[in-house]
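Lab notebook, bench 4. Still working through the backlog of constructs that have no structural model yet. Next entry is a single chain of 485 residues. Request: give me the C-alpha cells for it.
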Amino acid sequence: MATLQSAFQEYWPHLAFALSLAVGGSAAIHAAMTKNDVRAAIGWVGVILMSPLLGPLVYLIAGVNRIRQDHISDQRNKAEKDYSRMPTLPLADVSRIAAAQFHSLKVLGDRVSHFSLLAGNHIQTLKGGDQAYPAMLAAIDGAQKSIALQTYIFDDDSEGRKIVEALVRARERGVEIRILIDAIGSKYSRPPIIRLLRKRRIPCALFMTNPMGFLRMPYANLRSHRKILVVDGRIGFTGGMNIRAGFVTEMAGSETTGDTHFQVEGPVVLQLMVVFAQDWKFTTKEVLEYETWYGETWPQTGPGVPARCIRSGPDRYIVGTHNMLLGAFAVAQRHIRIQSPYFLPDQILLGAINTAARRGIVVDIVIPGRNNLRLVNYAMTAQLDQVIRSGCRVWRCNGNFNHSKLITIDGYWSYVGSSNMDPRSLRLNFELDMEIYGHDTAGEIESMIDKEIGDSDAVTLEALAAIPFRKRLRNRIIWLASPYL
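Model written out:
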C-alpha cells in the first residue's frame, strides 16, 4: 500500500497528463466528428485543447446533444406511422395562382418540411393577447372531445389561470386534455403553472426535464419554443405568443407587449396536431388515438389559402426554417419585410438578405427600440451595419416591445410562427412555423409591419458610428457570444 502511495506521489503529474490527453483528445475528436458547423467545431476543439480537463467538462455540459438526432427522428418516424389514417387531403397547386418563383419555393418546402402544402385553409390574424386569448378561451369552452396545448411559457398569472379554469371546465365535460410546457419556460413564473395543472387534475408534462439521463434538470438548450393549441382536431392556434398577462392591455396597461398569433381552420390543423402528438409521445411515450385527436372536416367558408407547417429543431429538421428563409430571400422579386424581436441571423442568412438587397429588392427589417433582452439588443446593434451597408432599411420601433415574428415576400408569401431570427431558434430550439400563400394574409401582415415602420426611426451608419466607443466595444464583445444568448 505504501509502495502504491509513494508511486502515485511520484508519478501523479504523469498520470494527470495522460488523463488530460485521453479525456481532452476524446472530447476534441467527438466535437470534430459531430459538429456540422465548422465554427462550432473549431470553437469547441479550441476550448478543449486550451483546458484539457476543464474544457471537456464544459463541453460535456453545454456542447453535447444528448438526445441524439437519430433517436428523436426514430421516435417521431414511429409517431408519424401512427397517424397514417388521415383522409386524402387537398393538395395546393400554387403554379396556377401565384407567380413562377413561388412554385420553386413550394418545391423547396416539400423537401424541407416533409409536410404537404394543403389547400382550403382559413387563417385569422390575432393581434396581441387582447384578441388571441379570448379566441383561445372560446375554442376551449367549445371543445367537445379533445384539447392539445403546447407552449414555451405558461405563467401562473391572471391570464394563465383563466386558461386553467377553462381547461377544468372542459375536463368536467369529459374532454380529453394534454398540456405540454417546456421545462425552461415553465420556470418564468413562481410558482410554476404545472403545479396548478396537476392540482386541478389536468394531464400535463414538461418537455426535456432530464436530457443528461442522470440529473433532474432542464437543459439550457434544446428547448421546445413551439406554440400550439388544437381543439377537437379542427381549430388550431399557432404563432409567437406565450401565455402571460404582459400581452393583455387590461393587465399590463401602457407597458403591454405586442405579439401576433393566428387562428387556423382547415387541413393544416392536422399538421399542427401531428407535431404536438409527436412531441407528446417523445416526452411521455403516450400515443394519442386518432379518433379522439384528429378532425376530418372543416367549415366550408370559401376557397381558403394554401398553407403548411415547417418544423425545425435539433433533429432531422435542424435547419428547416433556415433553409426555407434562404429559399424565400432568393426568389424575392420586389419586397422583403422582416419583423423580429431578436434579429441575429448567421452569416449565411445575412448573405442571402444582403444579396437580395444588392439585387434591388426592397428589404425592410423591423426590430424593437426597447428590447426585453438587453444582451441580445447589444449583439443586434453590433451587427446592423452589415445589412445597412448592403442597402437594407433597418427600423427601430418607438412603441412597446413587440414579440412578433413575421416575414412576407412580394405581397403573397408569408412566414409566421415561433422562430426568431437568431442562432438559438435556428439551430437549438424546437420551433414551429407556418408558410402561407395568399395576398390577403400577406397584405394584412404587410400593413401591420408598415404601421410599425411608420412609428419607427431609421437606423443609419452615421447613428451607429456615433455610439461611444466603449459601448460599441461592449456590443461587439457580446456579439461574439451571440450563438449562446
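Notes after review: The two ends are 51 Å apart (CA to CA). Residues 2-34 form the longest helix (33 residues). Flag for follow-up if needed.
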